[in-house]
Specification:
globular; 19 strands; alpha/beta
């Protein structure tokens, strides 16, 4: 085949390297961090993403490292009233073809790193920041900030929301602050007593805010993401610590499952959520962007990583087909653009759904959900079929 250069050693970049290797390519990854890893936080791997990992032979490793939730729930944030309870477990496998999994980001990175090292040893350059890239005949050369060069047949920009590859292709982006700030934390389950979250992925609805709770590492850790509408914090960073008293103030009067998680957190991180309009293109010559570099998403559908994982397979598969490289990259863009952009839009819309403020709006929005869950629960699952049933490897 050829050689694929991958900028970024996160979930999307490592998955892309594994997908290219699976399709017969040699790979080389540059990652600006000195070591691979993630600040403590959970991630949901829905069945559409698991299909890619199963095709890569990583299904068992991820299942062993993660946690299989029993269901997906929606509850009211203050009262705890249950609106929706959709069964997962084996029901997810039966309906959508693959399991639904919760996993610590660090554990996911560790599985991907180990697999790549086993299949393509010593192909990840750490502490290696991309500076620029240029076309040289039938190849692309990536220049690192230390002056080193990497040459390959394609360059894949999997370098996140502040993508160097995207900026060289398209210029600086123009993110728009959504007015939402997210708190996140993980807490050992043993600290939570009777206030431990149920073994489900649960979204808690509130006035101008919502929270998501679920379990990690075989149920030993509880994960919290709590989003509140505010305009006094606009730093787009995953690693900025916040004060417990501020988080408790934001969720004062909420259900003990949520507030106990905040109280027992050793560290709470917070980051401002920015939105970005869909890009005009993801491809230029022998270069393509993917994941957050191409279509960063608000976290209101838990699909940001899943879309990067789907991107990775489609990109490698298309470039491995016969025909000119640019045509193959364009085919990847065409296949992925509408799906990713649609989920971007739906994620944006979910913020409004989760944050209904008035009693009338809450009745109009949540009442039908509660009723359908009681009398026709299959309707709710059917609505998820296009998302979770999608198979990028088919």
């Amino acid at each position: 085949m050829g050689k694929a250069l991958v900028a970024g050693g996160g979930i999307g970049g490592l998955t892309a390297a594994l997908c290219f290797h699976h399709h017969g390519w040699s790979v080389e990854v540059c990652e600006k961090s000195a070591e691979l890893g993630e600040v403590g936080a959970g991630i949901q791997i829905s069945p559409n993403a698991m299909k890619v990992f199963e095709a890569l032979g990583l299904g068992d490793a991820l299942s062993n490292a993660g946690f299989r939730p029993e269901g997906i729930q929606m509850r009211m944030g203050e009262s705890g009233m249950r609106l929706v309870n959709t069964a997962l477990g084996e029901a997810a496998v039966k309906r959508w073809g693959s399991p639904y999994l919760h996993i610590h980001r660090a554990d996911l990175i560790a599985v991907l790193q180990a697999a790549l090292h086993e299949r393509a040893p010593n192909k990840v350059r750490l502490g290696a920041s991309l500076d620029t890239f240029r076309r040289e005949g039938d190849h692309i050369t990536a220049i690192l900030t230390n002056g080193d060069a990497m040459t390959g047949d394609v360059l894949i920009g999997a370098d996140g929301i502040h993508s160097v590859v995207r900026e060289q292709m398209l210029g600086p982006d123009k993110p728009i602050f959504t007015g939402n700030v997210a708190w996140r934390s993980v807490v050992p389950i043993e600290r939570l007593g009777s206030d431990a979250p149920d073994p489900v992925a649960c979204a808690w609805m509130g006035r101008g805010k919502h929270a998501v709770t679920y379990l990690l590492r075989g149920g030993k850790l509880a994960n919290l993401v709590a989003v509140v509408e505010r305009d006094d914090w606009t730093k787009e960073s995953w690693t900025e610590p916040g004060r417990r008293k501020d988080a408790l103030r934001d969720f004062s009067g909420w259900h003990p499952i949520v507030t106990r998680l905040i109280e027992e957190s050793d560290t709470l991180f917070r980051w401002a959520l920015f939105d970005r309009a869909p890009l005009d293109r993801w491809v230029e010559d022998r270069v393509a962007i993917m994941g957050d570099a191409a279509h960063p998403m608000l976290p209101f559908m838990a699909q940001g990583a899943a879309m990067a994982i789907e991107d990775a397979w489609t990109l490698a598969a298309q470039v491995s087909s016969d025909g000119p490289t640019l045509d193959a990259l364009k085919a990847y863009e065409k296949i992925r653009f509408n799906r990713a952009s649609g989920i971007q839009a739906n994620s944006r819309a979910n913020a409004a759904t989760f944050h209904k403020r008035t009693t009338l709006d809450r009745l109009i929005t949540y009442g039908p959900m509660w009723l359908v869950d009681k009398i026709a629960p299959q309707v709710l699952k059917k609505r998820q079929d296009p998302l979770y049933g999608h198979d990028a490897t088919a």
